[in-house]
Amino acid sequence: MKLISTHRRTLAIAALAAVGALSLTACNDDAANGDTAATTAPAAPTQAAPTSAPTTPAAPATSAAPATGGTTGGSTGGATGGGAAPAAGTTAKIGQPIQFPYKYGKATGDISLTVTDITKGDPADLAPLKLGDKAKGQVPYYINYKVTNVGSTDMSFSSLTQVKGLLADGSEATEVSIIGTFAKCPHNSFPSGFTNGKSVTSCVLALAPEASQVTGAEYWGDPYTLGKGLNWK
């Protein structure tokens, strides 16, 4: 496994228990056949071999809610039209889509992003990722989301990974970016022929201390930044 940080600030790996911008990256022997989550430069990398995936089922922490529109904390929720980017801090309910312009490499288009649900897992789920002591006292949460192409651009083979978990107090959960495959939280790039109306589902893995929980999520990628993105609660 390699430990890296996706936060714009430099944080020590030893600070994982403090919960914040720290991100872990796990890899396995299936890396050649799986997706690679976008990350920043690695820090204090380590290597380890995978084990077989546990069979403990995940229990839901937050159920998907239907799109209802409305506002949260003064921000507009729901889909927005016209290709304009919603203001930073826009907040929607889990299960509610938000539309915005999206750029990946040379491809630029309009997408609709929905955090569909946040599911609590079991600490044993992390065994195949070989995080060791770094994951002690941490509980995995699976942030599932759907991306739909609502523009006129073919976004084939693009990818969206800039989704992170938020704890109940609004602080960042520890993100685990996976290189390779992890059955409990698969990340899927946009397929070939990803044109208007096509959708893809994906997942990111976040950790929370046992005394807390992941209750929300934030998209912080282009055209937004960390802490100033689109939120789902």
List the helices and strands and how they pair.
Blueprint: E1 2-5, E2 22-27, E3 35-36, E4 59-62, E5 71-72, E6 75-76, E7 91-92, E8 98-104, E9 107-120, E10 138-149, E11 163-167, E12 174-180, E13 199-209, E14 214-219, E15 230-232
Parallel strand pairs: 2-12, 7-15
Antiparallel strand pairs: 1-2, 3-12, 4-9, 5-6, 8-9, 9-10, 10-13, 11-14, 12-13, 14-15
Task: Note the main attributes of this structure.
single chain; 233 residues; mainly beta; Immunoglobulin-like; four-stranded mixed sheet; globular
Helix and strand run: EEEEEEEEEEEEEEE
Major sheet size, sense and barrel closure = 9 strands, mixed
Number of strands: 15
Distance between the first and last residues' Cα: 31 Å
Strand content: 35-45%
Helix content: under 10%
List unreliable stretches of 5+ residues.
1-22, 29-82
Rounded Rg: 17 Å
Mean pLDDT: 75
Structure report:
The chain has a single domain, classed as Immunoglobulin-like. 0% of the residues lie in helices and 37% in strands. It is built from no helices and 15 strands. The strands form three sheets. Strands 1, 2, 3, 4, 8, 9, 10, 12 and 13 form a nine-stranded mixed sheet that branches. The two termini are 31 Å apart. The N terminus is likely disordered.
